[in-house]
Amino acid sequence: QVQLAESGGGLVQAGGSLRLSCEASGRISSTTVLGWHRQAPGKQRELVARIGGGMATYLTNSVEGRFTVSRDNAKNTIFLQMNNLKPEDTAVYYCHADNGVELFWGHGTQVTVSS
Fold first, then answer.
1. Average pLDDT for 38-56
2. Rounded to whole angstroms, how far apart are CA atoms 23 and 11?
């Protein structure tokens, strides 16, 4: 099993920055795909960013150019650097891990961007 622990959420003014971290433990390897989803109130959960074991990355269009996803395999940790935050980014951000067989979720960290 995989356990995921997010941290780094908080309240920030529009235009500010936050850095989210997700430490993975358990049955995880450098080939496990790691990423972030977010869910705003009343909306569906959406994929924000993903990074594979080969460091190939994906960012959804709404955050491309503002967010950066990275991982430290030695620490089994994924990061989401969020710059130029907008109120539309307000959501609970969930870390996920995908080993090709199972999908695991963290409990989420709240990001609130005030206008």
1. 94
2. 21
